[in-house]
Amino acid sequence: MATLLRTPAAARADALVERVAEAPVLPLGSGAEPGTEPPAPPRPEEPSRALALSDVIAVKAGPGEALIRLAYRIGIPGHAIAAPFRRPQAPRVIATVESPNRGDRAAGTALRAGHFLIHGVRLPIASFDFSLPAHHAPGVERVVHSFAWLADLAASAPRADGAAVAERIATQWLHAHGVPGKGPAWETELTGLRLVAWLVHAPLMLGGNDKALKSRLLAAIGATAGWLDKRAPREPAGFGQVAAWAGVVAAGLLLPHGRPRRLFGEAGLVRALGDMVGEDGGVLSRCPAAQLDAVRLLTDLLACYEAVKVAPPPALAVMRELLVPPLLGLRHGDGSLGSWQGQGAIPADRVNAVIEASGVRTRPLAQAGGWGYQRIKAGETLVQFDTAPPPRAKHARTGCASTLAFELSDGPQRIIVNCGGAALAGGQVPARIGQGLRATAAFSTLVLDNANSTAVLLHGKLGKGVETVEFDRRTVPGRAREATRIEAAHDGYAGRFGLTHRRILTLSGDGTELAGEDILVPTAKNGKRGKIGFAIRFHLGRGVEVQLSGDKRGASLLLPDGRLWQFRLGGDRAGADAITLSAEDSLWVDGEGRPHATEQLVIEGLALRSGGQFSWLLRKTG
After folding, report:
1. Fewest CB atoms less than 10 Å from the CB: which of 44, 311, 420, 620?
2. What gap in Å lies between CA 204 and CA 208, rounded to an integer?
3. What is the pLDDT of residues 169-188, one digit of tens each?
4. pTM, 2 dp
């Protein structure tokens, strides 16, 4: 039965909570893939865009707590509510947090040597421009202003050795950005992440010898928490709102007289999580990096609860369990993530560190209907297939026009990839090509008339294009084992060209063959006359050597480890003229932000406006 994916309204989460409770659990520390994928849960008839988590796991509150939340929300200070007849306590952090999250040791070592190491680029701290008018690449601003580097510093050396570096950077940062609300440093998402980082790594931040700086930092923590109290309720749905509420809750846990703030923040955080996450556990930005960030943030926040011996709302642990299976579904055989929605191939060690810190042990989600990434695994072959509309502009992080693109890997070797890396532009990836890396042509899918299936706008946003994706997944008889067949279609070209792109992928039961079919279907009974240019692109993984066949209808793909795959055009070319197969230059961005020169196979030709059909086959031969 075909399922129609639209931009849906909120839905209940009862089935999801039950699914988490019943999900098969793997032994702690087990990194092995199951031999066969478990049966997928039934797809909802109306997939939801947002998860009404608070409807089923609402934060429990008696009349007293509800009154405290109301009082804090209308502006009564926390100390006046928590201890009305006592003087306010001096600013301090009341507990030491031991978070299982670990930073990047190499980046921390670079900090101790006097450099930020961001996306592979070394930026000297001594000459770094912290001033308000300074403009840096988005990835640089994110690391510096969120104080994510604190985790890296903590992972690289004993606390006493890192405190002087933290003091040095914090002094420069406070001098430039000490006024709440001014400049990019006070973007709500970065502010929430910064406050959590300050509190989780308080011993590193406050453990130096500069007492005046310690007082300034404690004052900044209090001022930031107060700013987020007002800002979080007004922030649009998404990870930024979740980060803001997480900062409020962390401050409520770790600052004096914090209970009113904590109760206020918990209610907002649970609602925000429901608004950020889809019914299958995928974030609405459809970005694997945002999914990873959400898991890491919840792990840090739950560590704050543990530090003060306060029981967290059940919704936080349930949400973390929901977030992990879709993330695992985007891992290739080498353990790193696929290149989707602007991200590079986030490396396996970084993914594994976040998953291990979360304590969640479960299986990858094969069918993420709402999040939109289908996963097929047979033998050592794994396919990831984008079968959902792109994120809405309000949710997009670095939105890309990737509908119906796929990636293919054989064990640790990537065969077909997407270019990725748009979110890392400005580091080793030149900023001038950032927009191009978000285009449909940067993904392994069909492109009509060199046009994007969804309009790519500035600042990571997306415009008009794909609104509806129809897909169907089933098993079909195969030569030896049952094969998996996924058929999907999108309407991104319907308005402009009167054609719908339909793609069918069938992976054999032993994983040795991936058969593909790209079909252009007219949207009206009487298709338009004339022809239109098309290209079907297959970006190849790093190190894959290509040799075209003599008849120019096939190619040999030699993988770096010696495995051999053959690509072949099908015999049917209905509805097209002058089809050619060629090898062209491409690039692929790894998880550290490094671009690598690669190649791509391109099927090009002129398709009739009345429709066309083009089949191809990838077969493992050695």
Report:
1. 311
2. 8
3. 999 999 999 888 888 899 99
4. 0.88
